[in-house]
Design a protein that fits this description.
Length: 951
């Protein structure tokens, strides 16, 4: 058999990957061994990088070539056991060596006589052995063992293999050196494998091996990405494509042992679906393999890995040296060993490996190591966030006098970096270790503000103590601003008013920043809690401020909202709101004012702009991972969706808001998301759900905030829709009373008079309905607006027949322009009935069909049923409906297909957009046509843009 064929057979049998060159060199070493000539090789590499497999392959090849193979494995646990490696090498080969009984006796003698060392040089596996350190009997026994091996080599070549030679005991090392020196020209091949650990292994042995003819040093590199892919394919076969080789290489560092562990994790995770995206599973098998690698080294390697796991950063050897009490050289070599094994990347362990290493520490050890690390880094001037992370993981943080200051500093930095949870943890820890009452109150104020953004309920338990501290002067006045907001949110209005009264106290009036801060906050609170907080100044017109306050975008946005609530929308208010948002970044000092600015666009019928800005800020809130901000922007977006006539979307957004922050944490502001849910459920005909939403417990101060107006409107609409007009009147009237008392009597906020007019009509009080509707129309003025369109429809409903056509025609025009498709659908339905009375039958049918399409697209089933039960002339008219169930009865997949088909896309284009087959599209369209009762694509309702007629 040729050398190449033998190598290929060995590679196949042992499944070696990327080791062809190394195996070829070692096979050549065996072939060059002949009478009068031996050889030597040192295989080196990181832990788990395949040294043992390579030696095993060479041993098998040597057996096939007729070698006598003697093997041993060094072990840290047996490094102090005299002759442990010699015993492994020769035990079992006594008969082959020709002196079975005698060698057995000699081996027993060597391994039992611990007195072979004098103690003067007996320092473990150290070099420097000489005959003077051994007694005569032991020296003679070792000599005869050497002669036995040399004698055997006279008859057949000998391969002597020692794996993990760095752990060879001193006596065995001494014997190996004697053998090499006495057999320079004997056909003995010495093959050893070593792993670079925390110190060089046996320089005398290296020197002796280097002097032998044919010496080779074989370094084993870690696998490349291609090698990792080959190894995965060897392990998984056709399923290998499910494990991304590049990701596996990045985690394993190309260490074959770790690659196999990752493959095992993939097996344990189970077979993914056929369309599953290839992904790497890093689990228990990988963690076990990491610990196995580390434990193969010296104990200091485990301690080093534990220190690196605690620090979780690329640190200098000097820090590791001080932390572990070892010299820097040892730390450098240990770090190199971990890197050579693929365990470290940029000085850090993989998160799964880090967790496994940390869990190898007892809790008290882990806590102490974190505390010691924090202390050293603090002394070195490390960033507060780094030191704080270590303090948080230690139970001993309270013993350090500097810990409280570091934790508070870290919290501030985390807040600036939008790491809210980290800031909360730091402040919570600082509170626990703070013993000074004055400092504790200040920290609690910061903690409350941070907890507020996570979940307002967490902060509620501290508000009473903080209000008392503010009153007593123990809490600085700078905390009065946020404290007032928290108290108002939770309906603690008396305490909030007291805090608001301090907004101008204790700070110099000449401080422009203070003036701007106070004015911005008062503007904000006055627009949200008008029953408790009055505006910063009584002004008949627009709010214009001097000094720095005029330039503060928060003042600009809040003042714009105050103007719209008091005087109705205008272009200047819209411009101010958008200008304010263009200059603000989302943060704890701007978020509430940003909500004000978006609300200006909402109340000014700039719904497209409101949607764009709200979606932008909602995405920013998600990026910053602040639950309260996400919830507030989702609720605001839901309110805008209702004004667009999209109750299904509004309901999803309102549900998302309550999923992010639970109902009990919203305080009096729960009226906002609840009102959205009630309105959306009512408009889509889900009256049971609407009733359930109205049963949610609400705080007593609900109707002292602006959000209470929305709740009253929503509840009134529910009562009117479910046949309780008197209850509806009570709600609409109460809403109006609040709006008038607060100076917010603008129909663009809540058109309560129009709502009440419809309720009066339901009970037969036409005259009162006419008065309310007429007053509403006077208030909205002549400018085109959604509120004017709603008022015109109310006036038409209770006015004489001869004026209705003009009123409703204008209402349709206005409502189409503002984009509220449900209000437009209702106005079109009213207009169709008026056209019938005027003899305009064909136009009436067109208006009715448009109304049905709009209501269907909006999922407004009650309105759809009303419009499709009879046509405008009172006769049955199924064709007007585009299907009695409407789009609301379509599945999500069917609705997506219908939307695209209505916009003119072909089946192939729809399939491409939705990542389905054209056949699936055809099946969906068949069901859509059947449900909607249409025959062509042209009859499908155009979603969203239907109100404006845009494609």
């Amino acid at each position: 058999m040729t050398r190449a064929s033998r190598r290929k057979r060995v590679e196949r049998d042992m499944r070696l990957v990327e080791r062809a060159a190394e195996l070829t060199e070692l096979m050549r070493l065996l072939e060059e061994c002949a009478p009068g000539r031996g050889g030597a090789a040192v295989v080196s590499g990181g832990i788990g990088c395949g040294k043992t497999e390579l030696l095993s392959a060479v041993r098998d090849a040597a057996v096939h070539q007729g070698f006598l193979v003697l093997s041993a494995v060094g072990s840290w646990a047996e490094r102090e056991s005299p002759g442990s490696v010699v015993f492994q090498l020769l035990r079992g080969a006594e008969g082959t060596l020709g002196a079975h009984e005698e060698l057995a006796v000699l081996l027993d003698r060597v391994t039992r006589r611990s007195e072979y060392l004098t103690g003067e040089e007996g320092d473990g596996p150290a070099a420097g052995f000489g005959q003077r350190t051994l007694d005569a009997a032991t020296t003679q026994a070792l000599h005869r063992l050497c002669l036995a091996v040399i004698g055997a080599a006279a008859h057949r070549p000998v391969l002597l293999c020692v794996d993990d030679v760095q752990f060879t005991d001193s006596l065995s090392l001494y014997w190996l050196l004697r053998l090499l020196r006495r057999a320079p020209a004997v056909p003995i091949v010495v093959l050893v494998a070593e792993c670079t650990l925390s110190r060089p292994a046996h320089p005398q042995l290296h020197a002796e091996l280097l002097s032998r003819s044919g010496y080779r040093r074989i370094p084993l590199a870690r696998l490349s990405v291609r090698g990792v892919a080959e190894l995965i394919a060897d392990q998984l076969g056709a399923l290998a494509q499910r494990v991304p080789a590049s990701d596996c290489h990045a985690v394993s560092g190309g260490n074959p042992l770790l690659v196999r562990a990752l493959v095992e994790d993939h097996r344990r995770a189970g077979e993914p679906g056929a369309r599953a995206v290839p992904r790497l599973v890093v689990g228990d098998a990988y963690a076990e393999a990491v610990l196995s690698c580390i434990h193969r080294g010296r104990p200091v390697l485990l301690r080093l890995a534990q220190a690196l796991a605690v620090l979780d950063a690329d640190v200098e050897p000097s820090l590791l040296s001080r932390l572990l009490g070892e010299d820097e050289a040892t730390m450098c070599r240990g770090t190199s060993a971990l890197e050579a094994a693929g365990l470290l990347g940029s000085g850090r362990l993989h998160p799964v490996a880090r967790t496994a290493v940390l869990e190898s520490l007892a809790p008290r050890q882990r806590s102490a190591l974190h505390a010691r690390s924090a202390e050293l880094l603090y002394r070195d001037g490390a960033p507060a966030t780094t030191v704080a992370r270590l303090l948080l993981a230690s139970d001993d943080r309270g013993r350090s006098p500097w810990a409280k200051e570091v934790l508070c500093d870290a919290a501030e930095r985390h807040l600036a970096g939008h790491r809210l949870s980290d800031a909360h943890a730091c402040l919570e820890a600082a509170l626990r270790i703070c013993g000074d009452d004055q400092d504790r109150v200040g920290i609690k104020a910061l903690f409350t503000g941070t907890a507020w953004m996570l979940n307002p309920s967490i902060s509620a338990r501290h508000l009473g103590e903080l209000a008392t501290a503010l009153r007593d002067g123990r809490l600085p006045d700078r905390h009065a601003l946020p404290l007032a907001k928290f108290l108002l949110w939770h309906g603690r209005f008396d305490e909030a008013v007291e805090a608001v009264e301090r907004l101008g106290e204790g700070r110099p009036e000449c401080d422009p920043a203070a003036v701007a801060e106070i004015r911005a906050t008062r503007e904000l609170l006055a627009t949200t809690y008008p029953d408790a907080v009055r505006p910063p100044d009584a002004r008949p017109g627009r709010s214009r401020h001097i000094g720095r306050a005029q330039d503060d975008p928060r003042v600009l946005g809040a003042a714009a909202l105050a103007h719209v609530l008091a005087h109705g929308p205008d272009d200047d208010a819209v411009a101010d709101a958008e200008a304010a948002m263009r200059t603000m970044r989302l943060s704890k000092s701007t978020q509430e004012w940003i909500v004000c600015a978006v609300s200006v666009l909402e109340f000014s019928d700039r719904l497209d702009a409101a949607v764009a800005w709200c979606d932008h800020w909602l995405e920013q809130a998600r990026t910053r991972r602040v639950p309260l901000w996400e919830a507030e922007f989702a609720s605001l977006r839901a309110r805008v969706a209702l004004r667009q006539g999209d109750p299904p979307l509004a309901r999803r957004l309102a549900q998302a808001a309550l999923a992010r922050v639970p109902a009990e944490s919203w305080g009096v502001c729960i009226a906002g998301p609840l009102a959205n849910l009630v309105q959306a459920a009512t408009r889509t005909g889900d009256h049971d759900a609407a009733s359930d939403y109205l049963e949610v417990p609400v705080p007593a101060g609900l109707f002292r905030s602006r959000f209470g107006l929305y709740f009253l409107q929503a509840r009134g609409r529910f009562h009117l829709q479910t046949g309780r007009p008197y209850a509806a009147l009570d709600d609409f009237t109460a809403c109006g009373d609040l709006m008038r008392s607060w100076g917010f009597d603008q129909p663009t906020l809540v058109p309560w008079r129009s709502e009440a007019a419809h309720a009066h009509l339901a009970v037969g009080d036409v005259e009162r309905a006419r008065v309310l509707a007429g007053r509403e129309l006077d208030l909205v003025g002549r400018q085109p607006s959604r509120a004017r369109g709603i008022a015109l429809r109310a006036v038409a409903a209770c006015g004489p027949d001869e004026g209705r056509l003009a009123l409703l025609t204008e209402a349709v025009t206005l409502l189409r322009g503002c984009g509220d498709r449900l209000e437009l659908a209702s106005a079109l339905a009213d207009l169709a009935r008026v056209r019938v009375a005027a003899g305009q039958q064909e136009q009436a049918r067109q208006d009715l069909r448009s109304a049905v399409r709009l209501a269907t697209a909006a999922g407004a089933l009650p309105l759809v049923r009303t419009l499709t039960a009879r046509d405008a002339t009172g006769r049955e008219d199924a064709s007007a409906a585009s299907g009695p169930a409407g789009l609301a009865l379509l599945s999500d997949a069917e609705r997506r297909v219908a939307d695209l088909a209505a916009r003119g896309h072909t089946n192939r284009e729809i399939a491409g957009r939705l990542a389905v087959t054209p056949s699936t599209v055809e099946q969906h369209l068949t069901r859509v046509f059947r449900k909607l009762g249409v025959r062509t694509r042209q009859e499908l309702p155009v979603p969203d843009a239907a109100a404006s007629g845009a494609d």
